[in-house]
Design goal:
Strand content: 5-15%
Largest sheet: 3 strands, parallel
Order of helices and strands: HEHEHEEEHE
CATH topology of the domain at 77-147: Ribosomal Protein L15, Chain: K, domain 2
Structural class: little secondary structure
Number of strands: 6
CATH class of the domain at 77-147: Alpha Beta
Distance between the termini: 119 Å
Strand order of the largest sheet: 1-3-5
Length: 187
């Protein structure tokens, strides 16, 4: 007869009753409740983290610090021109979703860049987030097209415009010019 959900039980000895601490001397864990006598670890709130080294200079302070992690780094999944000719056919559109389906980039990749290593003999339409000059040259020489959105363009102030809406001209009319006529003197 097979096992059913209602028959499942934990193995013998896997479950224990919880220890009832501080419930008299007969329990074996009365008075000091298994914490021993005085000292930091006997007090409430006296637990130390796993990083505490007894007052010795801790590891994260002993090691030298170098460099930094750029919070604004934009990461691209690299795809070489040579690998496109293996999985695409002439006339195909190469974009992020198509690359994910064919396993050329990770399913979690947010954006991709076309690089120029290898050769291509297909006429494909490429929609990439970034593209190297040599890759663009090879795709266009094979009769294909490369389309890259213009983002991250720096304005006159030098501040990056990544993530902002592109500046557009407003259709509001110019305010009407007001003329000033001085009052005649002598009145």
């Amino acid at each position: 007869m097979g096992t059913t959900l209602s028959d499942l039980r934990p193995p013998q000895g896997a479950k224990h009753r919880r220890r009832r601490l501080g419930r008299g001397p007969g329990s074996g864990n009365g008075t000091t409740a298994g914490r021993g006598q005085k000292g930091q670890r006997s007090r409430s709130g006296g637990a130390m983290g796993p990083w505490f080294e007894g007052g010795q200079m801790p590891l994260q302070r002993r090691l030298p610090k170098r460099g930094f992690k750029n919070r604004f780094r934009v990461a691209y999944a690299p795809v070489n021109v040579g690998s496109l000719s293996r999985v695409f056919e002439s006339g195909d559109t190469v974009e992020l979703d198509a690359l994910k389906e064919r396993g050329l980039v990770s399913r979690r990749a947010p954006r991709w860049k076309l690089l120029g290593s290898g050769e291509i003999d297909l006429s494909v339409s490429v929609k990439a987030d970034a593209c190297s000059p040599s890759a663009r040259q090879k795709v266009e020489a094979a009769g294909g097209t490369v389309e890259v959105p213009q983002i991250g363009v720096r304005g006159r102030s030098g501040a990056s415009r990544v993530g902002r809406r592109p500046a557009t001209t407003t259709d509001t009319p110019e305010p009407a010019a007001t003329t000033y006529t001085p009052e005649p003197e002598g009145e």
